[in-house]
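Repro case for the chain-ordering regression, as requested:
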Amino acid sequence: MASPCVARTARCLSASARRPLARQTTTTAAASSTPASSSSLRATNNSSSSSSSNKRAYHSHEHPPSPPFGPVDRDILAAAYKHVPEHGFSLRAIGLGARDAGYPDISASVLPDGQFSLIRYHLVAQRERLAARSREVLLKDEAPLSAAGVGEKVAALTWERLMGNKDVIHRWQEALAVMAQPSYLPKSLAELAALSDDIWFLAGDKAVDPSWYTKRAALSMVYSSSELFMTNDRSPNFLETRQFLHRRLGEVQSVGSTLGSVGQWVGFTLNAGVNVLRSKGVPI
Amino acid sequence: MNQRLLSTTRQPRSSEPSSTSDRQTHFGFETVTESVKRERVAEVFTSVAESYDKMNDLMSLGVHRLWKDYFVSSLNPGATNPPGMPQRILDVAGGTGDIAFRMLQHAHVNNGNPNVHVTISDINPAMLAVGRQRSLALPASHQSSLSFLEANAEVLPSSLEDNSLDLYTVAFGIRNFSNMPAALKEAYRVLKPGGVFACMEFSKVDKYPLFNAIYKQWSFSAIPLIGQLVAGDRDSYQYLVESIERFPSQTEFRDMIADAGFAIVGKGYEDLTGGVAAIHKGIKPL
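-- result from build under test --
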C-alpha cells in the first residue's frame, strides 16, 4: 500500500466491495410490496439486471443487485423447501409447495428451471442466512475471532455455511447431479463464486492484489470438496467433515506460503545473479 | 380476429368488436379495414385448413412438432397433488388440435389423470372442423375429455366463467389477434388465481445475426414459394411471414403480459431454436 496509486485502488475497491446485508434488505423490501406493483416493476428490472448486475464480479453499495426471486416464485419455493427433506429437490416437492402456498397445481410449471429452481433457492437462502448471521458466528467462538486472523474467520464462516446443508444433506448428492447438468452448470458456478466472495468479504479481507482471485478460487475448491465429503459423512455432528475442512484450508495456506517463499527465493537469486554479473563488468 | 396465418393490429379499441369493422388494420404489410380483412381471412382460411399440417412440417422442417412437445411437457398438465385432481384447460386458436391432443396424451397417459378437460377454442369454423375430424382418431376417453368452442378470444363467451380455468394456452395464434391486450385481459379474467397463461409464438432471432439472416431469407423466399407449390396459395403464406415480422419482440411481449396483470417469473420467456419461437408464461397472482 506504499504507492498512492495502489492505496487509491484499495479505497475504491473496498467501498464497492460486496455488501450482502444491503442485498438482504432490498430483497425483503421487494418481497413485501404488493404483487401487482412489484410484478410490473420486476418486468422493467429484469432486463437491466440480466444485462448489468450479472456482469459485475463484485457487489456495490450504489448498485444493489435485483432480488433473485419474485414474490410468486419465492412463495412457492419457500413452501416447497419444507418438503425437501422428505421428497428431495424434485418437481413433487415443488408441486406440494405450490399447493401449500395456496396455488393450483399447474402453477409449478411457471418456474423456469424446474427442480433446479428449488436447488438455487436453497443456495441463495443459505448464502443470505450466512450474511445475516455472520456477526453472531464471528462473536460466538470462545476465542475472540474479531481479533483473530482472516483465515480463522474464513474457516468459521465456511463451517457455518456447511452446517446450512445439514437438513438436506441426504438429498444433496441428487442436487449436485442436477447442478452439474450443462444447462445449469453456469448458474451453479456463479452461486459458488458469490458464496466465496461473500465469505471473504464477511471475514474482512481487504486485499486488492492478484490474490483476490486465487483466494476465491481456492475457497471455492475447498468448499465444494468439503460439501462432497459431507454427503458421505456419518460421524456425529459431522466431526470428520470439520477435520477435512481444516486440513484443506491448512493445505491451501501452506501451499500459498510455500509459493510465496519460492517466489522470494527466485527473486533474490535472480537479483543477486544480476548484481554479480554487473560487478564483473557486464553491461546490464 | 384470431385466425391463424393472419396479420395483426394492436390498435386500442372499444370493447364492442363489431363497431370496429370500418377501422384500419393490418393484413400482413397491407392496410385494410377490419371487415375486409375478415372476408379475406375466411376465403384464405378454408383453402389453408386442409393443408395446414403438411405446410407446418415443410415450413419448419418438422421442428414445430418438437416445440409443441416441449411446450406441453414443460406445462406438465395433469400432475396434481394428490393425483387425479380435476384441471380445466382452454386452448385458444387451437383449431386443428395439435396442442390439445398432446395435453390430453400427457395428462391422461403420462400423468395418469383422466380428470383433465381441454376445450379447443377457435374463431374459424373451418379449422375447428379439421380438429373435430382429427379428434375421431383419439381414444374414446380422450374424446370425452375434449370439447370445441367457436369463439373470439378477445370476447370469450360468458359460458367461460371468471376464475374458472387452470391453464390458458395459445400456440402460434396470438399474433393474428387484432387486439392482443383485450385477449390477454380475457385470459386474465377466465383464469383462476394462480392459473397459468402460456403462449408459444414466433419471435425474434436478433441475438444471432448470422442465423437471423438465414432465417429471414428462408421466411421471405422459401415459405411463400412452398405455399404456392404445395397449398396453391402464395398470398396466405406471404401474410404468415409478414405477420411474424410484425409481432413484438420477446421482452415487449413479456411486458404486455405483465400489463394485463400477470406476474412474471424469472425473465418470463424461453427461446426455442435461438428465438425462432418463444414460450411466454405468466401467472395470475393470488
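Ordering looks correct now. Chain A touches chain B at residues 35-36, 39-40, 42-44, 46-47, 50, 70-73, 91-92, 95-96, 98-99, 102-113 (CB under 8 Å).
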